[in-house]
Amino acid sequence: MKAYLSRWVCLDFESNLCRAEEESRGAAQAGADLVVFPEAFLHGYTGFVDPGRARDTFARISQEHPRVGFAFGSFTEERRNRMTVWRAGREAARYDKVHLFGPNDEPAIWDPGDRYAAVKLDGWTVGLVNCNDVRFPEQARALRLEARCDALLAVAWWPWRRDHLWRTLLRARAIENGVWVMGCCVAAGETPGERFAGAGNHVFDPHGEPVRTSDDRTYVLDPARAGGLLVDPLETFRDITAVKVFE
Question: In this structure, is the dihedral angle defined by the CA atoms of residues 155, 55, 25 and 188, taken in order, positive or negative?
């Protein structure tokens, strides 16, 4: 799978919509199988977005390139921070962020989701993860064990000063679950009052080794790299819920 992870700079809503169309077409024409934008890429934390116009744009883009999967990061809809994946003009999957980030007052902006989600794309089962979710290994483990995910796709609005945490958490989720992990983070926000320097994009194979990119955007997920896992949770996981505290 050839995945294109945008290095997105968030501007005003109208500019963002136009640029999303241009970048999506360019990535699809260059042979991407999956095109990804980061969390809140159309509006940041506080900007306004018209969900109807956003959805019309997503449908139009994906209809023009029906063989390509488009993960349009997330946007605000029904008071949810909603990830959305499109294929051939229709929404193929949605996921509402479960683990909201308290230090940024996210619970005052959004309501948390109540389920995890994955989507099937050309033989891959991809689990959907949003930013602060990567701090919760039980979500990644559930997607691996219950959905049998081959890969996790995490979108984020994560600060550059904590890139080391973002990178480490993504890598840990790859190693402990034996899955590919893709992390697409906003590069910057340039709207007045919300200037932001974002963390990097990172992709790790199921061994936790970084996948290199030739253009800082395109990553090739080669299944040949996934063999020979030392520990495969699908084979060795034991569901233990009992805890004994000795006094």
Answer: negative
Asked, for residue 137, whether it belongs to a domain, the answer is yes
For 96, list phi and psi in degrees, rounded to 5: -95, 125
pLDDT of residue 96: 98
Close Cβ partners of 101 (under 8 Å, ≥ 6 residues apart): 131, 132
pLDDT at 51 over 90: yes
pLDDT digits (tens, 9 = 90+) for 200-221: 999 999 999 999 998 999 999 9
Give me 74's structure tokens: 């997330």
With a threshold of 0.85, does the pTM exceed it?
Answer: yes
C-alpha angle 53-57-58 in degrees, rounded to nearest 5: 115
Sheet containing 194-197, strands listed edge to edge, beginning at the edge strand earlier in sequence: 9-10, 188-191, 194-197
Domain count for the chain: 1
Q: Is residue 202 one of the residues assigned to a domain? A: yes
The predicted-structure confidence for 55-103, as pLDDT tens digits, reads as follows 999 999 999 999 999 999 999 999 999 999 999 999 999 999 999 999 9
- Does a structural domain hold residue 244? no
| Residues 128 and 118: beta-carbon distance below 8 Å | yes
What integer pLDDT is reported at residue 169 of this predicted model? Answer: 98
Task: Characterize the bridge pairing of strands 151-156 and 124-130.
Answer: parallel
Q: 10 Å Cβ neighbour count for 74?
A: 29
Helices 163-177 + 137-145 axis angle, to 10: 30
Q: Where are the alpha helices (DSSP H) in 33-145?
A: 51-64, 106-109, 137-145
Per-residue burial over 26-55, b if 16 or more Cβ lie within 10 Å, else e, is: ebbeeebbbbbbbbbbbbbbebebeeeebb
